[in-house]
Amino acid sequence: MTDIERLVHEEWTAVEADRRITISDPADGCELFAVPVARPASVDAAVGAARSAAAAWARTPAGERAAAVHRAADAVAARADDLARLTTLEMGKPLGDARGGVDAGVGTLRQYAELGPVHRGRSLNGEVGATDLMVYESRGVVAAITPWNDPVAVSCGLIGAALVTGNTVVYKPSERTPATGWLLARILSEHLPEGVLTLLLGDGEVGARLVDAGVDVVAHVGSTATGRAIARACAGTGTKVLLENGGNDPLIIDADVDPEWAAEQAALGAFANAGQICVAVERIYVHEAVAEPFLAALVARARSLRTGPGTEPATQLGPLVDRRMRDHVHGHVAQAVAAGAKLLTGGEVPEGPGSFYPATVLTHCTDDMAVLREETFGPVAPVAVVATFDEALERACQGEYGLAASVLTRDLAHATRAWRELPVGTVKVNNVFGGAPGGAAHPRRASGQGYGYGPELLDEMTQTKVVHLATPPS
Fold it and tell me: In what residue span(s) does the Aldehyde dehydrogenase domain sit (predicted)?
């Protein structure tokens, strides 16, 4: 086990801490790092440093801020293999997927570096003889609280958008992937003035202290429970809140699609990153006309996945992030089976070290089961067979979440009805993943609030001011 301070460079000084969190490899249970948990005074000091640097960074020309973020993106790209390996060690995803997340983060940093200087206000039509403007200004200090399931990509998005719009950032990565967050922050901060990006490591107590420490924006990607706690805290202070939280994303499979192709899409959506994706397929409604061959193909695909440590090149299904997550996932599956669901494959906790869980397919699922009603966040594909497209759409529209949904159909009318009626921020037709890089959606209901991506995130990170310039009388 290695102290995280010496993980990247032996000259790093130790962080003062009263306690530490131990991070274990989810593939074999071996202890990896001892992570120092920030003291309350350290949280206040980080926010104070960010506050002290905020005015100067906001006055820095937008082109200079963008150039700094471009340099930071190049530095992240140069350390992509190191960041990917840390991600895999800490949370288990296959190394290729982890590298893809780093590459996405680099692309996002570059996107915001390009968009920052052209994020401008507009002139307004006022009275003759006067000039009226609407201008964007930075908000101040942004607390970026990020998740473990895609730690580099999400962090780069929030940090990049905040920096190019003139905000300083206090960055708290998930306590499940602190080494990845630590290395990312060190890489980025080398290309920024002192205090513009500060790092805090720790658990939920540190995050709660940060939310209450007088920041101007809290941008959180993570669980709905944590997001709701943040929203309650910020409601009392007036702090701006951006939340992308849990999802319970449905997949509708129409009667006119190729069932084997549909099974490939369902498997990708349910099993990628061991189901630990905010927009993973969490519940499947398949038309009875294609249900039998679809289920056969889905089961075959689930059984064909190669399970193993994420560091092994052949691995297609890595472990869950830890055994606490595995207990949660297996609890949903066991409850469903006890309530009448039929287990077609998987569903058993394997013996041996680590936190592995098999790709699991359930059928005869009903909407009162937790596996269809709540976010499972594991490699589980719960299936409900429906008699009509109307039934599938009605059931897909139910629930408290509103993050994303997918529809597989050859019927344009069905596709149009689905994207219009589904109460979610993102609808994908004939693809469970994908989309243009600039897409920005509002998550709905328990899934959050505010734009989390795209050019619109720059609007969230700024505040507008209307200026009326009139000439004095002669």
Answer: 12-467
Residue 70 shares a structural domain with residue 124: yes
Q: Say if residue 56 is in the same domain as residue 27.
A: yes
Last residue of a domain, one of 203, 225, 245: 245
- Do 353 and 275 belong together in one domain? yes
Indicate the residue among 245, 264, 279 that finishes a domain: 245
Q: Do 388 and 262 sit in the same domain of this protein?
A: yes
Residue 184: domain span = 2-245
Cβ-Cβ contacts under 8 Å for 472 (sequence gap 6 or more) = none
- Burial track 412-438 (b if 16+ CB lie within 10 A, e otherwise): eebbebbeeebebbbbbbbebeeeeee
Return the pLDDT at 437: 76
pLDDT value of residue 57: 98
For residue range 281-308, what is the model confidence (pLDDT) as tens digits?
A: 999 999 999 999 999 999 999 999 999 9
Catalytic residue among 5, 90, 175, 244: 244
Give me the number of domains the chain comprises: 2
Alpha carbon 256 to its chain centroid, in Å, reads 33
d(CA 207, CA 188): 21
In 3D, which of 401, 402, 429, 404 has the Cα closest to residue 415? 429
Supply the pLDDT for residue 2.
Answer: 53
| Catalytic choice (278, 365, 375, 460) | 278
Question: Is 237 domain-assigned?
Answer: yes
Structure tokens at 253: 């499979």
122-124 and 130-138: which strand pairing? antiparallel
The whole model's pTM is what? 0.95
**Residue 216 to residue 461: CA distance in whole angstroms:** 10
- Are 355 and 385 in a shared domain? yes
Mean pLDDT computed over every residue of the chain: 94
Residue 458 counted as domain residue: no
In the residue annotation, 244 being an active-site residue is answered as yes
Check residue 18 and give its pLDDT: 77
Give the CATH number, domain containing residue 142. Answer: 3.40.605.10
Tell me the pLDDT tens digit for each residue of 246-295.
999 999 999 999 999 999 999 999 999 999 999 999 999 999 999 999 99
Give the residue among 281, 283, 181, 278 at the shortest CA–CA distance from 224: 278
Residue that is written with structure tokens 């070290």 in the block: 353
The answer to whether 10 is a known catalytic residue is no
